[in-house]
Amino acid sequence: MSKNVEVDLPMQAVILDRKARRNPSWSRDELILALDLYMRHRASLPGKDSPEVTELSKVLNQLGAALFQRTDTSYRNTNGVYMKLMNFRRLDPDYVAEGKKGLTRGNQDEECVWAQFASDPVRLVAVARFIRLGISKDLSNVDLAGPDEPGIEEAEEGKVATRMHRYRERDRRLVVEAKAQAMKRYGRLACAACGFDFSKQYGVLGTNIIDVHHAKPVHTMLPGEKTNVADLVLLCSNCHRIVHSKRTWLSVEDVKSALAISNLDGT
Protein backbone atom coordinates (compact mmCIF):
# COMPACT_ATOMS: atom_id res chain seq x y z
CA MET A 1 0.00 0.00 0.00
CA SER A 2 2.85 2.40 0.76
CA LYS A 3 4.14 1.88 -2.75
CA ASN A 4 0.80 3.01 -4.21
CA VAL A 5 0.82 6.12 -2.05
CA GLU A 6 4.30 7.00 -3.30
CA VAL A 7 3.08 6.70 -6.88
CA ASP A 8 -0.17 8.61 -6.32
CA LEU A 9 1.33 11.65 -4.60
CA PRO A 10 3.61 12.67 -7.48
CA MET A 11 0.72 12.23 -9.90
CA GLN A 12 -1.50 14.44 -7.75
CA ALA A 13 1.27 17.03 -7.65
CA VAL A 14 1.51 17.01 -11.44
CA ILE A 15 -2.27 17.43 -11.79
CA LEU A 16 -2.34 20.29 -9.29
CA ASP A 17 0.62 21.95 -11.02
CA ARG A 18 -1.12 21.70 -14.39
CA LYS A 19 -4.29 23.21 -12.95
CA ALA A 20 -2.32 26.05 -11.36
CA ARG A 21 -0.61 26.82 -14.66
CA ARG A 22 -3.72 26.42 -16.79
CA ASN A 23 -4.09 29.31 -19.18
CA PRO A 24 -6.88 31.77 -18.29
CA SER A 25 -9.95 32.29 -20.42
CA TRP A 26 -9.49 34.53 -23.43
CA SER A 27 -9.74 38.19 -22.48
CA ARG A 28 -11.90 40.72 -24.30
CA ASP A 29 -8.77 42.22 -25.90
CA GLU A 30 -7.63 38.83 -27.20
CA LEU A 31 -11.05 38.04 -28.64
CA ILE A 32 -11.13 41.39 -30.44
CA LEU A 33 -7.73 40.70 -32.02
CA ALA A 34 -8.83 37.21 -33.04
CA LEU A 35 -12.06 38.54 -34.53
CA ASP A 36 -10.08 41.15 -36.43
CA LEU A 37 -8.02 38.39 -38.04
CA TYR A 38 -11.16 36.35 -38.69
CA MET A 39 -12.96 39.20 -40.44
CA ARG A 40 -9.93 40.02 -42.60
CA HIS A 41 -9.89 36.42 -43.87
CA ARG A 42 -13.56 35.56 -43.46
CA ALA A 43 -13.93 33.85 -46.83
CA SER A 44 -10.87 31.65 -46.41
CA LEU A 45 -9.32 31.40 -42.97
CA PRO A 46 -5.54 30.95 -42.70
CA GLY A 47 -4.25 27.59 -41.50
CA LYS A 48 -2.79 26.76 -38.12
CA ASP A 49 0.80 27.16 -39.32
CA SER A 50 0.16 30.21 -41.49
CA PRO A 51 2.14 33.45 -41.03
CA GLU A 52 -1.08 35.25 -40.02
CA VAL A 53 -1.89 32.84 -37.17
CA THR A 54 1.74 32.71 -36.08
CA GLU A 55 1.91 36.50 -35.96
CA LEU A 56 -1.28 36.76 -33.91
CA SER A 57 0.00 34.13 -31.50
CA LYS A 58 3.10 36.27 -30.95
CA VAL A 59 1.02 39.41 -30.40
CA LEU A 60 -1.27 37.60 -27.93
CA ASN A 61 1.75 36.47 -25.95
CA GLN A 62 2.97 40.07 -25.81
CA LEU A 63 -0.48 41.13 -24.66
CA GLY A 64 -0.57 38.38 -22.04
CA ALA A 65 2.77 39.53 -20.70
CA ALA A 66 1.67 43.18 -20.67
CA LEU A 67 -1.50 42.32 -18.75
CA PHE A 68 0.40 39.92 -16.49
CA GLN A 69 -1.86 36.97 -17.32
CA ARG A 70 0.40 34.70 -19.36
CA THR A 71 0.90 31.53 -17.31
CA ASP A 72 2.49 28.89 -19.50
CA THR A 73 4.72 28.33 -22.51
CA SER A 74 1.66 27.00 -24.33
CA TYR A 75 -0.11 30.32 -23.84
CA ARG A 76 -2.08 31.26 -26.97
CA ASN A 77 -0.06 28.98 -29.24
CA THR A 78 -0.91 28.66 -32.92
CA ASN A 79 -3.22 25.71 -32.28
CA GLY A 80 -5.20 27.69 -29.71
CA VAL A 81 -5.42 30.72 -32.00
CA TYR A 82 -6.63 28.60 -34.91
CA MET A 83 -9.28 26.93 -32.73
CA LYS A 84 -10.52 30.34 -31.61
CA LEU A 85 -11.03 31.31 -35.25
CA MET A 86 -13.06 28.13 -35.65
CA ASN A 87 -15.15 29.15 -32.61
CA PHE A 88 -16.11 32.36 -34.37
CA ARG A 89 -17.33 30.39 -37.35
CA ARG A 90 -20.28 29.06 -35.35
CA LEU A 91 -21.46 32.68 -34.99
CA ASP A 92 -20.94 33.65 -38.63
CA PRO A 93 -24.31 33.65 -40.45
CA ASP A 94 -22.55 33.36 -43.80
CA TYR A 95 -20.85 30.18 -42.65
CA VAL A 96 -23.74 28.47 -40.88
CA ALA A 97 -26.03 29.29 -43.83
CA GLU A 98 -24.10 26.64 -45.73
CA GLY A 99 -25.14 24.04 -43.16
CA LYS A 100 -21.78 24.14 -41.38
CA LYS A 101 -21.25 24.61 -37.65
CA GLY A 102 -17.66 25.48 -36.79
CA LEU A 103 -16.37 24.65 -33.30
CA THR A 104 -19.24 24.90 -30.85
CA ARG A 105 -17.32 24.90 -27.56
CA GLY A 106 -16.85 28.63 -27.27
CA ASN A 107 -17.66 31.01 -24.44
CA GLN A 108 -20.31 33.67 -23.98
CA ASP A 109 -17.89 36.55 -24.37
CA GLU A 110 -17.19 35.45 -27.96
CA GLU A 111 -20.86 36.02 -28.68
CA CYS A 112 -20.71 39.49 -27.10
CA VAL A 113 -17.62 40.48 -29.09
CA TRP A 114 -19.18 39.19 -32.30
CA ALA A 115 -22.42 41.10 -31.63
CA GLN A 116 -20.59 44.35 -30.85
CA PHE A 117 -17.90 44.34 -33.52
CA ALA A 118 -18.62 41.96 -36.42
CA SER A 119 -21.17 44.30 -37.99
CA ASP A 120 -18.96 47.36 -37.52
CA PRO A 121 -15.67 46.57 -39.31
CA VAL A 122 -14.37 50.15 -39.10
CA ARG A 123 -14.67 50.17 -35.32
CA LEU A 124 -13.24 46.65 -35.07
CA VAL A 125 -10.14 47.64 -37.02
CA ALA A 126 -9.71 50.79 -34.93
CA VAL A 127 -9.96 48.97 -31.60
CA ALA A 128 -7.68 46.12 -32.73
CA ARG A 129 -5.12 48.67 -33.89
CA PHE A 130 -5.39 50.50 -30.56
CA ILE A 131 -4.74 47.29 -28.60
CA ARG A 132 -1.70 46.46 -30.69
CA LEU A 133 -0.31 49.96 -30.26
CA GLY A 134 -1.13 49.88 -26.56
CA ILE A 135 1.23 46.98 -25.92
CA SER A 136 4.02 48.46 -28.01
CA LYS A 137 6.84 49.59 -25.74
CA ASP A 138 7.78 52.23 -28.29
CA LEU A 139 4.34 53.88 -28.17
CA SER A 140 3.02 53.33 -24.65
CA ASN A 141 4.47 54.13 -21.23
CA VAL A 142 1.42 52.91 -19.33
CA ASP A 143 1.80 50.01 -16.89
CA LEU A 144 -0.97 47.72 -18.11
CA ALA A 145 -0.16 45.05 -15.53
CA GLY A 146 -1.61 47.01 -12.63
CA PRO A 147 -4.64 45.73 -10.69
CA ASP A 148 -8.17 46.38 -11.86
CA GLU A 149 -10.07 48.97 -9.85
CA PRO A 150 -13.15 47.81 -7.92
CA GLY A 151 -16.35 49.35 -9.24
CA ILE A 152 -14.92 50.06 -12.69
CA GLU A 153 -16.49 47.75 -15.25
CA GLU A 154 -14.11 46.74 -18.01
CA ALA A 155 -14.87 48.66 -21.20
CA GLU A 156 -16.25 46.75 -24.16
CA GLU A 157 -13.02 47.64 -26.00
CA GLY A 158 -11.09 45.57 -23.43
CA LYS A 159 -8.65 45.82 -20.55
CA VAL A 160 -5.99 47.82 -22.42
CA ALA A 161 -8.52 50.57 -23.15
CA THR A 162 -9.81 50.46 -19.56
CA ARG A 163 -6.41 50.84 -17.98
CA MET A 164 -5.27 53.42 -20.52
CA HIS A 165 -8.41 55.42 -19.79
CA ARG A 166 -7.80 55.41 -16.03
CA TYR A 167 -4.16 56.36 -16.53
CA ARG A 168 -5.02 59.36 -18.69
CA GLU A 169 -7.73 60.73 -16.43
CA ARG A 170 -5.39 60.54 -13.44
CA ASP A 171 -2.60 62.56 -14.98
CA ARG A 172 -1.89 64.90 -12.07
CA ARG A 173 -0.90 67.85 -14.27
CA LEU A 174 -4.11 67.65 -16.30
CA VAL A 175 -6.29 67.13 -13.22
CA VAL A 176 -4.87 70.29 -11.65
CA GLU A 177 -5.34 72.24 -14.87
CA ALA A 178 -8.91 71.00 -15.39
CA LYS A 179 -9.88 72.07 -11.88
CA ALA A 180 -8.14 75.44 -12.25
CA GLN A 181 -9.99 76.17 -15.50
CA ALA A 182 -13.33 75.25 -13.91
CA MET A 183 -12.67 77.54 -10.95
CA LYS A 184 -11.71 80.38 -13.27
CA ARG A 185 -14.80 79.93 -15.45
CA TYR A 186 -17.47 79.01 -12.88
CA GLY A 187 -15.96 79.88 -9.52
CA ARG A 188 -16.60 76.38 -8.20
CA LEU A 189 -16.06 72.67 -8.89
CA ALA A 190 -19.41 71.11 -9.72
CA CYS A 191 -20.36 67.77 -11.24
CA ALA A 192 -21.14 68.14 -14.95
CA ALA A 193 -23.92 65.56 -14.65
CA CYS A 194 -25.77 66.33 -11.42
CA GLY A 195 -24.29 69.66 -10.28
CA PHE A 196 -23.10 68.34 -6.92
CA ASP A 197 -20.53 70.63 -5.28
CA PHE A 198 -18.43 69.04 -2.53
CA SER A 199 -17.41 72.38 -1.00
CA LYS A 200 -21.03 73.52 -0.82
CA GLN A 201 -22.08 70.28 0.88
CA TYR A 202 -19.11 69.78 3.21
CA GLY A 203 -17.66 73.25 3.56
CA VAL A 204 -13.90 73.52 3.82
CA LEU A 205 -13.61 69.72 3.97
CA GLY A 206 -14.89 69.50 0.41
CA THR A 207 -12.52 72.08 -1.03
CA ASN A 208 -10.97 70.99 -4.35
CA ILE A 209 -12.63 67.57 -4.23
CA ILE A 210 -14.09 66.31 -7.54
CA ASP A 211 -13.35 63.42 -9.92
CA VAL A 212 -11.93 64.02 -13.39
CA HIS A 213 -13.34 61.85 -16.17
CA HIS A 214 -11.74 61.28 -19.58
CA ALA A 215 -14.74 61.82 -21.85
CA LYS A 216 -13.02 61.06 -25.17
CA PRO A 217 -12.80 57.31 -25.90
CA VAL A 218 -9.09 56.53 -25.71
CA HIS A 219 -9.22 53.96 -28.50
CA THR A 220 -10.11 56.76 -30.93
CA MET A 221 -6.95 58.71 -30.15
CA LEU A 222 -4.11 58.65 -32.65
CA PRO A 223 -0.67 57.22 -31.76
CA GLY A 224 1.22 59.78 -29.72
CA GLU A 225 -1.86 61.96 -29.27
CA LYS A 226 -1.85 63.50 -25.82
CA THR A 227 -4.84 64.13 -23.61
CA ASN A 228 -5.76 67.78 -23.23
CA VAL A 229 -8.11 69.50 -20.81
CA ALA A 230 -10.86 69.62 -23.43
CA ASP A 231 -11.02 65.80 -23.23
CA LEU A 232 -11.79 65.94 -19.50
CA VAL A 233 -14.97 66.61 -17.56
CA LEU A 234 -15.58 67.03 -13.83
CA LEU A 235 -17.86 64.47 -12.16
CA CYS A 236 -18.81 63.71 -8.58
CA SER A 237 -17.76 60.26 -7.40
CA ASN A 238 -21.32 58.90 -7.68
CA CYS A 239 -21.83 59.98 -11.29
CA HIS A 240 -18.32 58.83 -12.20
CA ARG A 241 -19.13 55.41 -10.77
CA ILE A 242 -22.34 55.26 -12.81
CA VAL A 243 -20.47 56.14 -16.02
CA HIS A 244 -18.26 53.08 -15.56
CA SER A 245 -20.94 50.76 -14.16
CA LYS A 246 -21.72 49.04 -17.49
CA ARG A 247 -19.42 47.38 -20.00
CA THR A 248 -20.68 49.90 -22.55
CA TRP A 249 -19.59 52.98 -20.62
CA LEU A 250 -22.16 55.73 -20.36
CA SER A 251 -21.72 59.30 -21.52
CA VAL A 252 -22.30 62.32 -19.30
CA GLU A 253 -25.48 62.94 -21.30
CA ASP A 254 -26.64 59.39 -20.52
CA VAL A 255 -26.25 60.09 -16.80
CA LYS A 256 -28.05 63.43 -17.11
CA SER A 257 -30.96 61.71 -18.89
CA ALA A 258 -31.16 59.02 -16.19
CA LEU A 259 -31.25 61.70 -13.49
CA ALA A 260 -33.94 63.65 -15.33
CA ILE A 261 -36.12 60.54 -15.66
CA SER A 262 -35.56 59.69 -12.00
CA ASN A 263 -36.57 63.21 -10.94
CA LEU A 264 -39.72 63.06 -13.05
CA ASP A 265 -40.66 59.76 -11.45
CA GLY A 266 -40.06 61.27 -8.05
CA THR A 267 -37.63 58.52 -7.07
Automatic annotation (TrEMBL):
<keyword id="KW-0378">Hydrolase</keyword>
<dbReference type="InterPro" id="IPR002711">
    <property type="entry name" value="HNH"/>
</dbReference>
<dbReference type="InterPro" id="IPR003615">
    <property type="entry name" value="HNH_nuc"/>
</dbReference>
<keyword id="KW-0540">Nuclease</keyword>
<protein>
    <submittedName>
        <fullName>HNH endonuclease</fullName>
    </submittedName>
</protein>
<dbReference type="Pfam" id="PF01844">
    <property type="entry name" value="HNH"/>
</dbReference>
<dbReference type="GO" id="GO:0004519">
    <property type="term" value="F:endonuclease activity"/>
</dbReference>
<keyword id="KW-0255">Endonuclease</keyword>
<feature type="domain" description="HNH nuclease">
    <location>
        <begin position="178"/>
        <end position="241"/>
    </location>
</feature>
